[in-house]
TrEMBL record:
Protein name: 1-acyl-sn-glycerol-3-phosphate acyltransferase
One GO cellular component, as annotated: plasma membrane
GO biological process: phosphatidic acid biosynthetic process
UniProt xrefs under Pfam families: Acyltransferase (PF01553)
Organism encoding this protein: Streptomyces echinatus
UniProt keyword annotations, A-Z: Acyltransferase, Transferase
Length: 214
């Protein structure tokens, strides 16, 4: 199996950090909480299109995000593949995406996931089971990440984007284990893991909002 390019993801990180700091004013809090090595899963709330590029740019380590296949069109698709991002079909059990994602983790890399499955309120109110599956199957710790201030407000230059040069906060939380230590991968175990994850992510988001005043 050909793993997504780690070098490509590092190039993506450098492009992302230049772009994000050029267009907005990211304020990154708690990045030191990210494990310095070994597998990790970034669980990111998702309220806007810039959330992925923002986290990709400010993360201390190269990150391979699972991105909907609809984004992989033409030159953009070639670019996303080149910077180590993973294409996923959200309408089915995408075995290729699952294999690629587990490959990233087994190789000690960082996997980025929007656990809500799609862009929404960004409040972790509804989680899909994919995050629990990857965490339990790989044993990788989950690092909650809250992106605040990315949703569009008055004064924006492009519809739906934050106003240029406005502040966007990215808050990293403490890593945690999703499983109960038993190694079970049954549907019941994944449901229990999803509940644990939701509590942790919601708590982190509340703390991040208090911390940033968002």
């Amino acid at each position: 199996m050909s793993l997504p390019s780690e070098r490509g993801a590092e190039v993506g990180r450098r492009i992302g950090v230049g772009l994000m700091y050029g267009l907005w004013k990211p304020r990154v809090l708690g990045a030191w909480r990210m494990p310095a090595s070994g597998p990790a899963i970034l669980a990111v709330n998702h309220s806007h299109n810039i959330d992925g590029p923002m986290v990709m740019g400010v993360s201390p380590r190269p990150t391979h995000f699972l991105i909907k296949k609809e984004a992989f069109v033409g030159p953009l698709g070639t670019f996303l593949t080149g910077i180590g991002q993973l294409k996923v079909d959200r309408a089915s059990a995408d075995r290729t995406a699952i294999t690629d994602a587990l490959g990233v983790l087994s190789d000690g890399g960082v996997l980025g996931i929007f656990p809500e499955g799609t862009r929404g309120e960004g409040d972790f109110a509804s989680l899909r089971a994919g995050l629990a599956y990857f965490a339990v199957r790989s044993g990788a710790p989950i690092v909650p990440v809250a992106v605040l201030g990315s949703s569009g407000r008055p004064g924006r230059l492009i519809k739906g984007l934050p106003p240029m040069r406005s502040r966007v906060d990215v808050v990293f939380g403490d890593p945690f284990e999703a499983g109960d230590g038993s190694g079970r991968r049954t549907r019941a175990a994944l449901d229990e893991a999803t509940e644990r994850i939701q509590k942790q992510l919601t708590s982190h988001l509340e703390n991040a909002r208090r911390l940033t005043g968002r």
